Amino acid sequence: MASISALAAAPPDRRPSRGAAALVWGAPLAALLAGIGAEWLDFRALRVPFLLVVGCGVLATSYALSGTHPGGRRQMALTVLVGMAAWGAGEALYTVIHTARGEPFHAARFGPQPAQALGLIGVHALILGLPTGLAAAALLHAPGLRARLARRRAEGA
Question: pTM here?
Answer without folding.
Answer: 0.73
